[in-house]
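[#protein-structures] MJ: dropping GNAT family N-acetyltransferase here for a structure pass
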Amino acid sequence: MNLAIKKATPEDMPAVLSLINELAVFEKEPDAVKINEDILIENGFGDNPLFYCFVAKENDTVIGMALCYYRFSTWDGKSLHLEDLVVREEYRGKGVGKKLYDQVMTFGKENGVKRVEWVVLDWNKNAIAFYEKSGAQFLKDWYLVQMDEGRLHKYIKTITPS
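AK: finished. structure tokens for GNAT family N-acetyltransferase:
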């Protein structure tokens, strides 16, 4: 396999979006993706990018990606969140994901983060085994909490005077 891990470019975003959609199907949420290539390009490339993306390429074809962004921990300081790491199904189990994972960890270390964090679905046994093998710590006493757009709008109505 002629594999290269590179920082993504705007030209890679159609393939990255395709991988995001493939991940949504894998995670049993095929209709959950609401972004498009333009949103990826606008938010990932410019003066103040909201994310960093690395792609795995085989002979110039994107076969995997890892997308991450900085966060700030009130306990630790600068941290990195790995939002998604996905490899095309036919390339899984060939070390592509590990190379992307290694790139994200290296990026974090080179940029002085105090921790890298991410979430994994409890039924994704292969990913869990991979992360455990890497030495990652699982924080099982913490809940992932989020407010999606609909819930956010509903909540704002409860705190905004009519």
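MJ: nice. The mean pLDDT is 96.
AK: one more thing. The radius of gyration is 17 Å.
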